[in-house]
Amino acid sequence: MRIETDQLAQFKIEPQSISFLPDPFSWCWKRDEGEKSRTIFYKPHFHTEGDRVVLDRADFYYYQGGFTDPFQYSHNSILDYIVERNSLLIRTKTISPESQEIIDRLLQQKPKINLPEGVFPKICDGDFLAKPDQSIVLYCGAGVSYESGLPTLADIHEFFGVDDPLSNRFTFGVRDPVLAALSNPRRFFIDAFGYHLQFANAEPSYSHTRLAELYREGYFSRILTDNIDKLFEKTGVETTRVRQIFPMQIDITFKPDEKTLLVIGVAADRRGVIKCAREQGLSVVVVNPHYSVSPRAQNLSYLSQNDIWFKERSENFLRTRLVATVP
User: Fold this and answer.
1) Following DSSP, what letter does each residue of 215-239 receive, concatenated?
2) What residues does each domain of the chain span?
3) Strands (DSSP E) along the chain, which ranges?
4) Distance (Å, rounded) from C-alpha 286 to C-alpha 292?
5) Cis amide prior to 247 (ω within 30 degrees)
6) DSSP state letter for 161
7) What's this model's pTM, rounded to 2 decimal places?
8) How many Cβ atoms are within 10 Å of 73's Cβ, its own excluded?
9) If you classify domain 128-147+203-324 with CATH, what class do you get?
10) What kind and span of H or E run contains 98?
């Protein structure tokens, strides 16, 4: 339930969900295509009061380079507009130093000339045997959370206008839906914050519950995740979070008795976790149905010919493929 206030908004949620609100994070993307460039950044600032979540304000930055379309806007008390010959900049009147640092680094990113392509191994139709010897490291991505009804990355991209579904390319120019949405910036910021509330209110899926059971029984040494939600924590187990923006790559040191990295629902190895596992001699087992993510995205580009690949959803894999052996 949303309540209008002097802040952007207050939301009343179930008291047990308060502690499962995501840690502070930002949504941000930079896309380049020839002389065109599009950068968008959004970070909400909020606090809790009893059973209420108060959205105080948001840091927002939007830039299009190579922007030549006619554009009209209405002045408001939240945003500044800077329209020049070949660019458009829209930003909140205040941005925290922490957010500005991320924005500056985002703007400096060089465009990717070529996206890597994976070498797809033969699809495995056998069983996966797991022993309770803590030799398996579990690495979970958004595919597991999708089974709890949470949005996919493609859904988030659609809201923030990252991809143009009509052209199957990146979004540029006045066709960007964000430009229309910013005619009511308060509404846009509130709607964007709705994802935080979804993450807090969601319940663990069968996959979360079963994976947590296997972890407690010693089949996994630890659980790595780059997910924003805390659904594993709702099952009573702790995770190691590897999501970060700068630097995006993260160094993971695996223990000598950790032999296998089980990757479930991870579309791209943006944090370099799978790369680290390969370099340290671990075998890689991937569970992913290979659904479409977004235009020109790295979808399973990390796959190698020597990987074991179960092309299916997590729940089906856990119900029909994973065999937990008894010592």
Assistant:
1) HHTTSEEEEEE--SS-HHHHTT---
2) 2-110+152-200, 128-147+203-324
3) 2-3, 9-12, 27-33, 36-49, 52-65, 79-84, 87-92, 128-130, 136-140, 163-164, 169-170, 220-225, 240-241, 260-264, 283-287, 308-310, 322-324
4) 16
5) yes
6) T
7) 0.91
8) 13
9) alpha beta
10) helix 97-108
The one-digit pLDDT tens for each residue of the chain (327 residues) are: 444 445 688 998 888 899 999 988 899 999 988 889 999 999 999 999 988 999 999 999 999 999 888 888 888 889 999 998 899 999 999 999 999 999 999 999 887 766 667 789 999 999 999 999 999 999 999 999 999 999 988 889 889 999 887 777 888 988 899 999 999 999 999 999 999 999 999 999 999 999 999 999 999 999 999 899 999 999 999 999 887 665 566 789 999 999 999 999 998 888 899 999 999 999 999 999 988 777 666 688 899 999 999 999 999 999 999 999 987
Please state, as a whole number, how many other Cβ atoms lie within 10 Å of the Cβ of residue 69: 12
**How far apart, in Å, are the Cα atoms of 44 and each of 19, 25, 296, 310?**
17, 8, 28, 37
Both structure tokens of 130? 């797991």
